[in-house]
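Hypothesis: this fold can be encoded by more than one sequence.
Test: take the structure tokens below, design a sequence, compare later.
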């Protein structure tokens, strides 16, 4: 996070010096660095989770998951859904005015709610029998 904060400061400083004509390039560059940081974080968490699953599988037990481990996944999903929400909102508003915008955002909120609470949803009996 400190690295991204310093990158943001540098980007804002460069924008002040260069003016608005380079704003799009500066924003694209900064977003690329944010994406790389997210990719590194997600890769690290995936490797750790796979390692835990392999150890748990070798021991014959189900691995525990904590809320802290899922934070990166939830954060990434939230960021991606907000990015996708921008064009969806524009399309919905252009095609169906306010009603379309409301329906689009209800869908976005619904998808995020299901993703956030999916660990609390009841499992099917077939899934329970396999474990």
């Amino acid at each position: 996070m400190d690295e991204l904060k310093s990158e943001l400061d540098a980007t804002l400083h460069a924008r002040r010096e260069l003016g608005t004509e380079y704003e799009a390039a500066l924003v694209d560059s900064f977003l690329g660095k944010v994406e790389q940081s997210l990719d590194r974080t997600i890769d690290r968490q995936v490797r750790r989770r796979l390692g835990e699953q392999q150890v748990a599988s070798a021991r014959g037990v189900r691995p525990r998951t904590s809320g802290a481990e899922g934070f990166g996944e939830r954060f990434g999903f939230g960021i991606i859904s907000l990015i996708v929400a921008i064009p969806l909102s524009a399309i919905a508003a252009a095609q169906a005015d306010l009603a379309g915008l409301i329906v689009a955002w209800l869908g976005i909120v619904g998808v995020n709610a299901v993703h956030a609470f999916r660990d609390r949803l009841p499992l099917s009996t077939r899934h329970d029998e396999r474990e």
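The chain has four helices and no strands. The mean pLDDT is 80.
Hypothesis status: open.
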